[in-house]
Amino acid sequence: MNSELDLLKTFRAAAEAPSFREAAVRLGSSPQAITRAIQALESHYGELLFHRSTRQVRITAFGEDLLHQLRPALEGLDKLWRPRTKATASQIVGTVRISAPHSMGSRAVLAALDTVTQSHPGIVLDVRLSDRVADAVDEGIDVGIRVGFMRDSRFIAKKAGEMRLHIVGSPALVERIGAPAETSELSRFPLVASVDINTGRPWRWYLAGGVQVAPTAPVFIADNADMEMAGVIAGLGFAQLADYMAAPLIQSGVLQRVMEEFDPAPWGLYVYRPQRGPVSPRVRVVFDALHSAVGALPSLTQMAPSPTSALTPSKAGKR
């Protein structure tokens, strides 16, 4: 017997069996080992646990009281140690903390969490939306969504899809002032930008061939992408937006693409979790649901082209 827990389990088996020999059979041990364990416990407590004679073994009053206290404690430990099975999967409970950009909140996170809560009502979902690059390990994030590249060895990341960037404006704005055709013309047109809260400066526009352009003198600056998009819809200026935000509006004609030949290569959309051992069932459920929801985000490549997705010859002449 190599631990106090083993001694107590042996005592329970001896108390519930008709003899030490039967207890030894149930534990896969020997009657001598059972006797030594009982003697060790009696020495520890300074009390007899069994009255023993050549004909029978009978538990003492002290032993009865100890057994009464011991049973629920050991049953609780047995329950904690029991591995999950398919039968207990529906009983998955606990909190999962999620990190995602603001623009993913209503577009991917809510859809995924609706699926999770219907299947696993015992899961508590703690969602933290921020466009700041979070330190998932330090902040206790269980699952997150990230745009771009995942090269941090502290994370397990799975690519869920791709994000394309389009320069867009409202049709009314294009009708009124035309649209830029070259990067050198951008400074002559009203631009809308969002602030990178990691730097405090407007996000740069990423263009084909690795070119980056900083919006100069934007007419409207917002602190999140949805407000930036609202400014574009209102006709305040042109902006570069992610396709999972802009694609439905481009397809419906609310927004119009310009400078399409300058669209950069797509970026990856990843769902990640910190790499720290086995994945708990609740984290796996949320991870898989978020991966499916991000993969289902809208993209122009999955939509039929809209008649308003390109400039007409008359409007091209205004460039």
Helix content: 25-40%
CATH topology of the largest domain: D-Maltodextrin-Binding Protein, domain 2
**CATH class division of the largest domain:** Alpha Beta
The largest beta-sheet arranges its strands as 4-3-5-15-6
Number of helices: 10
The total of beta strands comes to 15
- What is the mean predicted local confidence, pLDDT? 86
Q: Give the biggest sheet.
A: 5 strands, mixed
Assign the structural class, choosing from mainly alpha, mainly beta, alpha/beta, alpha+beta, or little secondary structure. alpha+beta
Distance between the first and last residues' Cα: 87 Å
Could you list the spans in which at least 5 consecutive residues all have pLDDT below 50? Answer: 306-319
Domains, number? 2
Strand content: 15-25%
Supply the CATH architecture of the largest domain: 3-Layer(aba) Sandwich
Helix-strand topology string? HHHEEHEHEEEEHEEEEEHEHEEHH
Domain HTH lysR-type: 1-60
GO molecular function: DNA binding; DNA-binding transcription factor activity
InterPro entries: LysR-type_TF_proteobact-type, LysR_HTH_N, LysR_subst-bd, WH-like_DNA-bd_sf, WH_DNA-bd_sf
Keywords: DNA-binding, Transcription, Transcription regulation
